[in-house]
């Protein structure tokens, strides 16, 4: 079973969003997200901002521009606790 495909603009569990996608592969009119594409994170631990970082996990079987496709529930790096992609395109499921 697959998970919804992640795209630029999709939200993360910490309240941020994916800010970079692969411009020539569109999913629901938005660039597809892959591992190493970046997200932002607005959360803070007291004074230290989480900032955000690259998506760390993706599909082992679906590549977009030579990188694994990102999906809902895949992990993203954050200076605080790890972040996770909260939502993707529900009509496009990516397995692996």
CATH topology: Tumour Suppressor Smad4
Biggest sheet statistics: 3 strands, antiparallel
Helix amount, in percent? under 10%
Q: Give me the side-by-side strand order of the main sheet.
A: 2-5-6
Short summary of the structure?
This protein is mostly beta strands and 96 residues long. The protein is built from no helices and eleven strands.
Q: What do you see in this structure?
A:
This protein has no helices and eleven strands. Strand 3 and strand 4 (30-32) form a beta hairpin. The strands form five sheets. It has a three-stranded antiparallel beta sheet with strand order 2-5-6, with no helix packed on it. The chain has one domain (3-94): Tumour Suppressor Smad4, CATH 2.60.200. The N and C termini lie close together (8 Å). The protein is an all-beta fold.
